[in-house]
Amino acid sequence: MSLPSELCCPACRGPLAVEGVGAACRGCDRRYPGDRGYLDFLPDLGAAAGEGLGPRLMHSRVLARVYERLWRPFFVTVASSGLPDYRAEFEAVLAALASAEGGAVVDLSCGPGFTGRKLAESGRFSRVFGLDWSLAMLARAAADNRGLMRLVRGDVGHLPFKTGSLAGVHAGAAFHVWPDPPSAVAEVARVVRPGGAFVASTFAHTSGLRRHLEAAVATVGQFHVFEVDQLRGMLSAHGLVDFDCERRGSLVLFWARRAGAAAA
Ligand SMILES: C[S@@+](CC[C@H](N)C(=O)[O-])C[C@H]1O[C@@H](n2cnc3c(N)ncnc32)[C@H](O)[C@@H]1O
Protein backbone atom coordinates (compact mmCIF):
# COMPACT_ATOMS: atom_id res chain seq x y z
CA MET A 1 0.00 0.00 0.00
CA SER A 2 1.21 3.52 -0.70
CA LEU A 3 0.11 6.56 1.26
CA PRO A 4 -1.24 9.57 -0.64
CA SER A 5 1.10 12.52 -0.19
CA GLU A 6 -1.79 14.78 0.97
CA LEU A 7 -2.34 12.81 4.20
CA CYS A 8 -0.84 13.63 7.60
CA CYS A 9 -1.54 12.74 11.21
CA PRO A 10 -4.71 14.58 12.31
CA ALA A 11 -3.48 14.73 15.91
CA CYS A 12 -0.01 16.27 15.49
CA ARG A 13 0.10 16.87 11.68
CA GLY A 14 3.26 14.80 11.57
CA PRO A 15 4.26 12.67 8.56
CA LEU A 16 2.83 9.18 8.13
CA ALA A 17 4.58 5.95 7.23
CA VAL A 18 3.03 2.76 5.91
CA GLU A 19 2.62 0.12 8.59
CA GLY A 20 1.14 -3.14 7.34
CA VAL A 21 -2.17 -2.22 5.72
CA GLY A 22 -2.39 0.91 7.86
CA ALA A 23 -0.24 3.88 8.80
CA ALA A 24 1.80 5.12 11.74
CA CYS A 25 2.67 8.70 12.59
CA ARG A 26 6.40 9.38 12.66
CA GLY A 27 5.77 12.39 14.92
CA CYS A 28 3.58 11.05 17.74
CA ASP A 29 3.67 7.30 17.05
CA ARG A 30 -0.11 6.96 16.79
CA ARG A 31 -1.30 3.94 14.76
CA TYR A 32 -4.06 4.11 12.15
CA PRO A 33 -5.49 0.78 10.91
CA GLY A 34 -6.43 0.29 7.29
CA ASP A 35 -7.90 -3.19 7.12
CA ARG A 36 -11.55 -2.24 6.37
CA GLY A 37 -11.13 -0.57 3.00
CA TYR A 38 -10.30 2.81 4.55
CA LEU A 39 -7.59 4.31 6.70
CA ASP A 40 -9.09 4.83 10.16
CA PHE A 41 -7.89 8.07 11.76
CA LEU A 42 -10.43 7.62 14.57
CA PRO A 43 -9.59 4.12 15.81
CA ASP A 44 -10.73 4.94 19.36
CA LEU A 45 -14.04 6.50 18.38
CA GLY A 46 -16.98 4.14 18.83
CA ALA A 47 -19.80 3.42 16.42
CA ALA A 48 -21.83 6.51 17.35
CA ALA A 49 -20.53 10.03 17.68
CA GLY A 50 -22.16 13.43 17.68
CA GLU A 51 -25.08 14.70 19.70
CA GLY A 52 -28.75 14.84 18.81
CA LEU A 53 -31.10 12.60 16.88
CA GLY A 54 -30.16 13.66 13.32
CA PRO A 55 -26.38 13.45 13.77
CA ARG A 56 -26.57 10.13 15.64
CA LEU A 57 -28.84 8.54 13.02
CA MET A 58 -25.93 8.88 10.58
CA HIS A 59 -24.28 5.97 12.39
CA SER A 60 -27.16 3.57 11.79
CA ARG A 61 -26.46 0.67 9.45
CA VAL A 62 -30.10 0.61 8.34
CA LEU A 63 -29.98 4.30 7.46
CA ALA A 64 -26.66 3.88 5.64
CA ARG A 65 -28.30 1.17 3.51
CA VAL A 66 -31.32 3.25 2.50
CA TYR A 67 -29.65 6.67 2.58
CA GLU A 68 -28.97 7.21 -1.13
CA ARG A 69 -32.20 5.76 -2.53
CA LEU A 70 -34.74 6.80 0.11
CA TRP A 71 -33.54 9.10 2.89
CA ARG A 72 -31.75 11.73 0.83
CA PRO A 73 -34.38 11.93 -1.96
CA PHE A 74 -37.12 12.23 0.67
CA PHE A 75 -35.44 15.15 2.46
CA VAL A 76 -34.50 16.86 -0.81
CA THR A 77 -38.12 16.59 -2.01
CA VAL A 78 -39.57 17.98 1.21
CA ALA A 79 -36.98 20.73 1.64
CA SER A 80 -37.03 21.93 -1.97
CA SER A 81 -40.74 21.32 -2.69
CA GLY A 82 -39.69 19.64 -5.93
CA LEU A 83 -38.34 16.39 -7.26
CA PRO A 84 -34.68 15.66 -6.56
CA ASP A 85 -32.45 16.32 -9.55
CA TYR A 86 -29.19 14.69 -8.58
CA ARG A 87 -27.73 15.10 -12.07
CA ALA A 88 -28.21 18.90 -11.95
CA GLU A 89 -26.81 19.00 -8.41
CA PHE A 90 -23.72 17.06 -9.49
CA GLU A 91 -23.18 19.31 -12.52
CA ALA A 92 -23.33 22.36 -10.22
CA VAL A 93 -20.80 20.74 -7.87
CA LEU A 94 -18.48 19.98 -10.80
CA ALA A 95 -18.78 23.55 -12.06
CA ALA A 96 -17.93 24.91 -8.61
CA LEU A 97 -14.87 22.64 -8.52
CA ALA A 98 -13.59 23.80 -11.93
CA SER A 99 -10.52 25.51 -10.42
CA ALA A 100 -9.62 22.24 -8.66
CA GLU A 101 -9.31 20.22 -11.88
CA GLY A 102 -6.06 18.29 -12.07
CA GLY A 103 -5.62 18.42 -8.29
CA ALA A 104 -6.72 16.32 -5.32
CA VAL A 105 -10.19 16.82 -3.86
CA VAL A 106 -12.13 15.40 -0.94
CA ASP A 107 -15.78 14.50 -0.63
CA LEU A 108 -16.13 15.53 3.01
CA SER A 109 -18.72 13.64 5.03
CA CYS A 110 -19.15 11.45 1.98
CA GLY A 111 -21.79 9.18 3.55
CA PRO A 112 -22.13 6.06 1.36
CA GLY A 113 -19.87 7.74 -1.20
CA PHE A 114 -22.02 8.32 -4.29
CA THR A 115 -20.78 11.85 -5.03
CA GLY A 116 -17.13 11.00 -4.39
CA ARG A 117 -17.36 8.07 -6.80
CA LYS A 118 -18.84 10.30 -9.48
CA LEU A 119 -16.12 12.90 -8.91
CA ALA A 120 -13.53 10.14 -9.37
CA GLU A 121 -15.30 8.78 -12.46
CA SER A 122 -15.31 12.25 -14.01
CA GLY A 123 -11.55 11.86 -14.48
CA ARG A 124 -11.05 15.56 -13.71
CA PHE A 125 -9.06 15.20 -10.50
CA SER A 126 -5.70 13.63 -9.73
CA ARG A 127 -7.15 11.93 -6.65
CA VAL A 128 -10.48 11.84 -4.85
CA PHE A 129 -10.71 11.20 -1.12
CA GLY A 130 -13.91 10.23 0.65
CA LEU A 131 -13.99 11.09 4.36
CA ASP A 132 -16.63 10.35 6.95
CA TRP A 133 -16.67 9.42 10.63
CA SER A 134 -19.57 6.97 10.53
CA LEU A 135 -18.53 3.31 10.48
CA ALA A 136 -21.87 2.40 8.93
CA MET A 137 -21.56 4.95 6.11
CA LEU A 138 -17.95 4.02 5.42
CA ALA A 139 -18.81 0.32 5.29
CA ARG A 140 -21.24 1.14 2.44
CA ALA A 141 -18.74 3.44 0.76
CA ALA A 142 -16.01 0.79 0.94
CA ALA A 143 -18.32 -1.95 -0.39
CA ASP A 144 -19.25 0.13 -3.46
CA ASN A 145 -15.92 1.89 -3.98
CA ARG A 146 -14.41 -0.15 -6.88
CA GLY A 147 -11.06 1.46 -6.12
CA LEU A 148 -12.34 4.89 -7.14
CA MET A 149 -11.74 6.91 -3.95
CA ARG A 150 -9.15 6.83 -1.20
CA LEU A 151 -11.44 6.38 1.78
CA VAL A 152 -10.53 7.70 5.22
CA ARG A 153 -12.34 7.79 8.53
CA GLY A 154 -11.86 11.18 10.08
CA ASP A 155 -13.51 14.09 11.85
CA VAL A 156 -14.18 17.30 9.95
CA GLY A 157 -12.87 19.19 13.00
CA HIS A 158 -9.41 17.56 12.69
CA LEU A 159 -8.77 16.73 9.06
CA PRO A 160 -5.98 14.27 8.21
CA PHE A 161 -4.69 16.43 5.34
CA LYS A 162 -1.60 18.59 5.10
CA THR A 163 -2.12 22.35 5.04
CA GLY A 164 -2.82 23.58 1.49
CA SER A 165 -2.62 20.06 0.05
CA LEU A 166 -6.07 19.91 -1.60
CA ALA A 167 -7.34 21.69 -4.68
CA GLY A 168 -10.98 21.40 -3.72
CA VAL A 169 -13.45 20.26 -1.08
CA HIS A 170 -17.06 19.16 -1.49
CA ALA A 171 -19.36 18.68 1.51
CA GLY A 172 -22.83 17.56 0.41
CA ALA A 173 -25.74 17.78 2.84
CA ALA A 174 -23.50 17.65 5.88
CA PHE A 175 -23.09 21.12 7.43
CA HIS A 176 -26.32 20.75 9.39
CA VAL A 177 -25.18 17.57 11.19
CA TRP A 178 -21.62 18.66 11.94
CA PRO A 179 -21.08 19.17 15.68
CA ASP A 180 -19.19 22.45 15.23
CA PRO A 181 -19.54 23.92 11.72
CA PRO A 182 -17.16 26.92 12.29
CA SER A 183 -14.33 24.57 13.38
CA ALA A 184 -14.97 22.39 10.35
CA VAL A 185 -14.85 25.44 8.06
CA ALA A 186 -11.55 26.49 9.66
CA GLU A 187 -10.18 23.05 8.82
CA VAL A 188 -11.48 23.22 5.24
CA ALA A 189 -9.77 26.60 4.82
CA ARG A 190 -6.54 25.15 6.20
CA VAL A 191 -6.37 22.14 3.88
CA VAL A 192 -7.43 23.89 0.65
CA ARG A 193 -4.64 25.54 -1.30
CA PRO A 194 -4.88 29.27 -2.10
CA GLY A 195 -7.22 29.68 -5.07
CA GLY A 196 -8.79 26.29 -4.34
CA ALA A 197 -12.52 25.62 -4.29
CA PHE A 198 -15.08 24.77 -1.62
CA VAL A 199 -18.64 23.73 -2.46
CA ALA A 200 -21.27 22.51 -0.02
CA SER A 201 -25.00 22.07 0.47
CA THR A 202 -27.18 22.32 3.53
CA PHE A 203 -30.49 23.63 4.87
CA ALA A 204 -31.06 27.38 5.00
CA HIS A 205 -34.04 29.32 6.31
CA THR A 206 -36.66 30.75 4.01
CA SER A 207 -39.41 33.02 5.37
CA GLY A 208 -43.04 33.08 6.50
CA LEU A 209 -44.81 29.92 7.66
CA ARG A 210 -42.18 27.75 6.02
CA ARG A 211 -39.54 29.26 8.29
CA HIS A 212 -41.47 28.10 11.38
CA LEU A 213 -41.73 24.60 9.91
CA GLU A 214 -37.97 24.55 9.25
CA ALA A 215 -37.28 25.57 12.83
CA ALA A 216 -39.68 22.93 14.19
CA VAL A 217 -38.19 20.09 12.10
CA ALA A 218 -34.67 21.17 13.05
CA THR A 219 -35.59 21.16 16.73
CA VAL A 220 -37.09 17.67 16.54
CA GLY A 221 -34.26 16.29 14.39
CA GLN A 222 -31.63 18.19 16.39
CA PHE A 223 -29.77 19.54 13.38
CA HIS A 224 -28.92 23.08 12.29
CA VAL A 225 -30.73 25.28 9.77
CA PHE A 226 -28.66 28.29 8.75
CA GLU A 227 -29.16 31.80 7.46
CA VAL A 228 -27.37 32.27 4.13
CA ASP A 229 -25.55 35.32 5.57
CA GLN A 230 -24.41 33.18 8.48
CA LEU A 231 -22.83 30.70 6.02
CA ARG A 232 -21.25 33.53 4.05
CA GLY A 233 -19.82 35.03 7.27
CA MET A 234 -18.50 31.69 8.52
CA LEU A 235 -16.65 31.12 5.25
CA SER A 236 -15.24 34.63 4.91
CA ALA A 237 -14.03 34.57 8.55
CA HIS A 238 -11.68 31.79 7.45
CA GLY A 239 -10.52 33.27 4.16
CA LEU A 240 -13.08 31.55 1.92
CA VAL A 241 -14.18 34.39 -0.35
CA ASP A 242 -16.32 35.10 -3.45
CA PHE A 243 -19.28 33.34 -1.82
CA ASP A 244 -22.17 32.52 -4.12
CA CYS A 245 -25.16 30.22 -3.84
CA GLU A 246 -28.19 28.65 -5.51
CA ARG A 247 -31.36 28.13 -3.52
CA ARG A 248 -34.19 25.61 -3.91
CA GLY A 249 -36.67 26.14 -1.09
CA SER A 250 -34.92 25.32 2.18
CA LEU A 251 -31.90 23.84 0.39
CA VAL A 252 -28.84 25.87 -0.47
CA LEU A 253 -25.84 24.91 -2.57
CA PHE A 254 -23.03 27.38 -1.94
CA TRP A 255 -19.45 27.77 -3.04
CA ALA A 256 -16.41 29.93 -2.39
CA ARG A 257 -12.73 30.22 -3.20
CA ARG A 258 -9.76 30.10 -0.85
CA ALA A 259 -8.28 33.59 -0.86
CA GLY A 260 -4.91 33.94 -2.56
CA ALA A 261 -3.56 32.90 -5.91
CA ALA A 262 -2.85 29.30 -6.89
CA ALA A 263 0.86 28.47 -7.09
CA ALA A 264 2.13 28.60 -10.69
C1 LIG B 1 -26.64 13.68 5.65
S1 LIG B 1 -25.14 12.81 5.38
C2 LIG B 1 -24.51 13.45 3.87
C3 LIG B 1 -23.98 12.37 2.95
C4 LIG B 1 -23.60 12.84 1.55
N1 LIG B 1 -22.47 13.73 1.58
C5 LIG B 1 -24.73 13.51 0.81
O1 LIG B 1 -24.45 14.41 -0.01
O2 LIG B 1 -25.88 13.13 0.96
C6 LIG B 1 -24.10 13.62 6.56
C7 LIG B 1 -22.80 12.87 6.78
O3 LIG B 1 -21.96 13.68 7.63
C8 LIG B 1 -21.20 12.80 8.42
N2 LIG B 1 -20.63 13.55 9.56
C9 LIG B 1 -21.30 14.18 10.55
N3 LIG B 1 -20.43 14.72 11.43
C10 LIG B 1 -19.19 14.44 10.97
C11 LIG B 1 -17.87 14.73 11.45
N4 LIG B 1 -17.67 15.44 12.58
N5 LIG B 1 -16.83 14.30 10.74
C12 LIG B 1 -17.01 13.58 9.59
N6 LIG B 1 -18.24 13.28 9.09
C13 LIG B 1 -19.31 13.70 9.78
C14 LIG B 1 -22.21 11.74 8.81
O4 LIG B 1 -21.60 10.57 9.28
C15 LIG B 1 -22.96 11.54 7.50
O5 LIG B 1 -22.41 10.51 6.72
UniProtKB/TrEMBL annotation:
The chain positions of domain Methyltransferase type read 106-199
Would the keyword Glycoprotein turn up in this protein's UniProt record? no
Q: Which UniProt keywords apply?
A: Methyltransferase, Transferase
A single Gene Ontology MF term assigned here is: S-adenosylmethionine-dependent methyltransferase activity
GO BP terms: namely: methylation
Q: Which InterPro entries match?
A: Methyltransf_11, SAM-dependent_MTases_sf
Keyword Cell division listed: no
Q: What is this protein called?
A: Methyltransferase domain-containing protein
- Provide the species name: Nannocystis exedens
